[in-house]
Amino acid sequence: MTSFDKQRLYELLRRIPKGRVVTYGALAAALGNPVWARAVGNALHHNPDGVKNPCYKVVNGKGELSHAYAFGGINEQKRRLEADGIKVENFKVDLQIFGCSLNS
Q: Is the dihedral of CA 52, 25, 23, 74 positive or negative?
């Protein structure tokens, strides 16, 4: 059973620096269990405020954007990432360059 505080998830989203992304798995680990990655994705899909809680900064473990991005689809996620200064190629972000840790 998955159990994490969605408000804590949204707080973590707000800590992601401009020009950086994190993965669903990194968010899940920060919430207490790395196997919650899918549950994190589901919670982000129901994010009540995509501006206040910038879920566009979350990508999968390969750096790929979400086709199901809740606030306008993959093209909108790409637009928002690029507006943040993140280079997106073929709907993918280089995690070596743009990834960040939630532990810092």
A: negative
